[in-house]
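Retro notes (design track)

What went well: tokenization of the new backbones is finally stable.
What didn't: we kept losing track of which sequence belonged to which structure.
Fix going forward: every design gets posted as structure first, then sequence, in one message. First example under the new rule, 161 residues:
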């Protein structure tokens, strides 16, 4: 197993790090897996202990994709995060979170989350006009194409250790 650290940077300077398994690591794209060892609820979705998250990352794209699978193998949800500055190496994936998320339920219904945060950060001067335009372009792209992006994102088999 290849251990990869996912580093999520925030506009206010905070960072969060997650230890994950690298499933497919290339120069321009990566797929990782994270095991949920604690129960939690996020975005209105329940993640029981034993759930798994697959993360899809692309250099040059302004979004990430997460696929959440329950311990029974059923899809819980997908989530797109609007991001900037994705960097991928064999040990680390790093990006800047730009607040806006798009959740997609198992039936394919999508809803945006954190639009209020985008407005608040813009009012506080933490989002430049260029970044606001990037968020808006990415929002339009995702709401028009999320089904195709999800379908194209294949979960690879784990790499042998």
């Amino acid at each position: 197993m290849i251990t990869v650290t996912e580093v999520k940077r925030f506009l206010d300077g905070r960072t969060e790090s997650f230890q994950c398994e690298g499933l497919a690591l290339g120069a321009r794209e990566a797929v990782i897996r994270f095991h949920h060892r604690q129960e939690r609820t996020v975005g209105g979705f329940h993640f029981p202990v034993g759930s798994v998250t697959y993360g899809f990352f692309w250099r040059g794209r302004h979004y990430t994709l997460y696929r959440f699978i329950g311990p029974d193998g059923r899809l819980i949800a997908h989530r797109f995060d609007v991001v900037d500055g994705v960097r991928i190496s064999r040990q680390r994936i790093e990006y800047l979170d730009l607040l806006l998320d798009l959740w997609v339920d198992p039936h394919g219904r999508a809803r945006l989350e954190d639009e209020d945060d985008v407005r608040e950060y813009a009012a506080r001067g933490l989002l430049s006009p260029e970044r606001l335009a990037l968020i808006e372009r990415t929002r339009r792209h995702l709401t028009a194409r999320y089904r195709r992006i999800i379908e194209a994102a294949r979960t690879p088999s784990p790499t042998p250790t």
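Added context from the reviewer: The radius of gyration is 15 Å.
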